[in-house]
Amino acid sequence: MRQLVYEILEKQKKALSLYEIEQQFVNVERSTIFRTLKTFQDNYLIHSIDDGTGAVKYALCDDDCTCKPDDLHIHFLCNKCGQTHCMKDMPVPKMDLAEGFSFENANFVVKGICPNCR
Amino acid sequence: MRQLVYEILEKQKKALSLYEIEQQFVNVERSTIFRTLKTFQDNYLIHSIDDGTGAVKYALCDDDCTCKPDDLHIHFLCNKCGQTHCMKDMPVPKMDLAEGFSFENANFVVKGICPNCR
DNA sequence: GAGTACGTGCAACAGTATTGCAAAGTTTTA
DNA sequence: TAAAACTTTGCAATACTGTTGCACGTACTC
After folding, report:
1. Minimal CA–CA distance to B48: which of B65, B36, B60?
2. What's the half-sphere exposure (Cβ side, CA atoms, 13 Å) at B32?
3. Which of A68, B25, B29, B97 is 20–30 Å from A112 (CA)?
4. Total of domains in chain B
5. pLDDT band at residue A44 under the 50/70/90 scheme
């Protein structure tokens, strides 16, 4: 199961939702995939993205990704096709927060139209 | 109703979820508040933030806010108390997207610990 | 005062995430 | 190798948020 889910994520360049992954199988329970993804996340194989569509999406981390703040990158959500792309070469910019705020994590989703939908 | 909801949002410096607003009332239906907030949004009085907690939060726009991409600012979610703050003086940085991607909107949520929770 | 428009509350529903439990499968151990 | 221990899976149920249909009541209009 883990291998299969991993392969699906590997094949895709984009981030997939639980539902989308489920669609790739014929007879696999959502909860099974859910728990598989959770295992992956716990072991830093994948990262999850909340792009605001209501469904969390998942994508493979790079080999050298530690899922630490330094590795954060921007995600792009196409308003037309709904696909979410990992912009792995675009790190989330560091912001100078106001006094007293400490940085732990960030979620930066840019929305617009992707090349395929123009 | 609209006045009451507006006043609640005005009093708070932070963004509130539908549920949190509901808690401020004794006998008001969720749907009523929901529709009130929707009306506000349609008329650009408030903006909604998806901070990844699962609940959309709402905050007043500035007087001169057009809710257009130029007015976007960063939001800060405290991982401890769960409160979401509007960093109205911190605009979302413009990113140079890869060829073919067009920018329409963005959501930038920084997570960490807020001054109150240190 | 009849008709119309608007706001509210109730109830139901949708979509996603999440958990409990038991069955099935796998590994370990004696 | 058989029993015990552990892991994974599928099913069903549930939680939570958001959303809508409908009916009722109030307020406005003519």
Report:
1. B60
2. 12
3. A68
4. 1
5. confident
Q: Which of A48, A57, A94, A101 to mutate to test the interface with B (most CBs of B within 10 A)?
A: A101
Q: Percent of chain A scored above 70 by pLDDT?
A: 92
Across chain B, what does the average pLDDT equal? 87
Backbone angles phi, psi at B99, to 5 degrees: -50, 130
Instruction: Note the pLDDT of residue B37.
Output: 93
Q: Which two tokens mark B14?
A: 């932070």
Residue A18: which CATH number? 1.10.10.10
**Domain that residue B54 falls in:** 2-117
Which H or E run contains B103?
strand B102-113
Q: Which of B44, B53, B108 is nearest to B83 (CA)?
A: B53
- Between the alpha carbon of residue A73 and those of residues A67, B85, B98, the distances in Å are 10, 22, 13
Mean predicted lDDT score pLDDT of chain A:
86
Tell which of A84, A99, A108, A117 to mutate to test the B interface (max B CBs under 10 Å): A108
* Average pLDDT of span A85-106: 88
Give Cβ neighbours of residue B88 (< 8 Å, ≥ 6 apart): B62, B73
What is A8-31 written as a DSSP string? HHHH-SEEEEHHHHHHT-SS--HH
Neighbours of B113 (CB within 10 A): 17
Whole-number pLDDT of residue B70? 62
Nearest residue for D9, CA–C1' = A32
